[in-house]
Amino acid sequence: MSARLARFLDLADVGRDGVLELLALARRLEKSPEPRALAGRILGLVFLNPSLRTLASFQAGMARLGGTSFVITPGQGTWALETRMGVAMDGVAAEHIREGLPVLASYCDALGIRAFADGKDLAADLADGNFKAMAALIDKPLINLESAINHPCQALADWKTLEDIGVPERAKFVLSWVNHPRALPLAVPAAAVHMAALRGHEVVVLRPEGYALPPVVMERARQAAAASGGSVTETADRAEALAGAHVVYAKEWGSTSHYGDASSDAEQRVALADWQVRESWFGRAAPGCRLMHCLPVRRNVAVADEVLDGARSVVLREAHNRLLVQIAVLHRLLA
Ligand code: CP
């Protein structure tokens, strides 16, 4: 068995071999559960933003290994936390992360933090400064539950899903922008394009004009592809992108040409309602092409019922795999 993980913040830190080891451990623990492996161990979970899957699957995973967990949602039954440095705390937040996070870390053996992008300043969100500042305050094993620009737990579950459904490494993986009523963060598309490139896929990012992924995200994915034998391209041409696709990974994200400008983003979206995945999208795709989405998904806005309820959808498997891969992550961090 490999050495203990110190932190789980980014698939790139773990590397391709590390990912394969975690997936092998996830399969072993699914087949041969270890209900006492983390007896007496405590996981703290801090959610600065909402969650269904991440929250429930980490609590369930910790329980399946014999450990326990607590959840903090600042401002909802606990003090609101100030995350900005050097400000006069004369607003809603009664406690600063500089005290709050070390206190919470002192109560547990590992901590997970979810802190979405502010969605105002693209450079600041790409730098992931808020999450890094919080990480620097914690001297315990730390898990990224989704930061401004990364969602490694989702990416790991998605890799396992691709393996489960038999998608070979050289397959064509299309990450497609889909419609949503408002701008969403770049964390999942950035993590998905990197994961698919690291796995060795022919990755195509399909997006309308104004929604190109930032160059730094594309470059990171291209470097991963170069190491694994894959490729990464982008296009606004749906027919070209979907021709021969083995996987369509649908995801919503905000305009990058008008980042932080909600009204301009909304104006751009008026003409983009047809960016909703429908069965007609798959006419020239490879036989058996699958639909992936990290959830939550807006039915009949992002993806049509006919696709989500059809045989090509693997969204529930992806969500279940969150539990299985996170059990492996917790085992490597704490067992
Ligand atoms: N995919 C995902 O992270 O789901 P939640 O936001 O519900 O945790």
Protein topology:
Elements: E1 7-8, H1 11-31, E2 42-47, H2 53-64, E3 68-72, E4 81-82, E5 95-96, H3 97-106, E6 110-114, H4 122-127, H5 129-135, E7 142-144, H6 152-164, E8 172-177, H7 187-199, E9 202-206, H8 215-228, E10 231-235, H9 238-242, E11 247-251, H10 262-269, E12 290-292, H11 305-308, H12 315-334
Parallel strand pairs: 1-7, 2-3, 2-6, 4-5, 6-7, 8-9, 8-11, 9-10, 11-12
Helix pairs in contact: 1-7, 1-12, 2-12, 6-7, 6-12, 7-8
Bound molecules: phosphoric acid mono(formamide)ester.
Provide an overview of this structure.
The protein has 335 residues and is α/β, with parallel strands linked by helices. The protein has helices at 11-31, 53-64, 97-106, 122-127, 129-135, 152-164, 187-199, 215-228, 238-242, 262-269, 305-308, 315-334; strands at 7-8, 42-47, 68-72, 81-82, 95-96, 110-114, 142-144, 172-177, 202-206, 231-235, 247-251, 290-292. Helix 8 links the parallel strand 9 and strand 10 (231-235). The N and C termini lie close together (11 Å). The mean pLDDT is 97. The chain binds phosphoric acid mono(formamide)ester. Phosphoric acid mono(formamide)ester (CP) binds at residues 51-54, 146, 154, 294-296.
